[in-house]
Amino acid sequence: MRQEREIIEIDGSILEGGGQILRTSLALSALTGRPIRIYNIRAKRSNPGLQAQHLTGVRAVAELCNAKVEGAYKGSMELIFIPGKIRSGKFRFDIGTAGSISLVIQAILPVLVFAPDRVEVEITGGTDVRWSPPIDYVRYVMLPILSKLGVKAEVIVYRRGHYPRGGGHVKLIVEPVDHLNSIVDVERGEVKEIRGRSHCVKLPKHVSERQARAAEEYLRSRGYKVPINIELEYYPPDRDPHLGPGSGIVLWAITDRDEILGGDALGEKGKPAEEVGREAAEKLVEDLSTNMAFDRHMGDMLIPYIALAEGYSKIGVAKLTLHTITNVHIVEKILNVKFKVQGEQDKPGVIEVNGIGYRRRL
User: Fold this and answer.
1) Is 295 within the bounds of a domain?
2) Pick the catalytic residue: 199, 242, 297, 323?
3) pTM
4) Active site includes 54?
């Protein structure tokens, strides 16, 4: 029986010491059937323990794999998770706050990729909030990149949600696969175009326009002569369904080898729209300047997938973030794989691994 397997002990305070450890551990526990105990959860955060967004992630993964869970309450510093059999169907999860929908997706997507059949998950919460990937990054950078490994998923955004009111509503649709492909991509090709999406809700149209204009001006000032197309998203006051207010911009560069690198920034009260646009462009230019194939955020997101994939993977990342290094550590511990990481923290790096060739279990 799966429940009889030895529990893997995971210290939630190691390295990055945040929610990344929880999300990766839950997903891999569900896939492998290996029970886990996570202690010192988010011990390095100012509000340690499980918060609303993390609890939603725990409950979502638990429901998706019929898990037995102990310690799933707000503020809990310890969690025992005993997974059962992964299932498919339609699910709905409400974070209840402006907690990040993107981070809940990060926890459940690896599980859904290997579900018995198609899965549809509706999630309410925050789509564009601090310390997490904007939902447009998930839609236009993360999922297209993961599709190269074989992931078949899409995100539909019905309504955006910003801090503090939330109210965002998205649907994640995943078609399962039998296995994932490996990927070898270290240095990027030439940038052939830059796209983007600049949005604002419960705010005047010019906010989205100014964000986009500032981003393009910065990119042009750094010598990018390629086509730049930043789509504007705004709503007339009488047809704006959001709780808002809020704004943000996501940019992504596409190379002649179909690589995608992203940069993003979020609007805040008192932060000029021009600063938001420029910040996103600066991040993108900084990562492009390394000539690596993946941006700083995609590096840590790819780690579980290339470990689960069939065969040898080698990726170049613009920055070896602490999140990336943490994910490597957790994946090694649960999947018994060994990564080779070349480079220093917060510098460009190269990551290699021989994937375990995980296969869907029906």
Assistant:
1) no
2) 323
3) 0.94
4) no
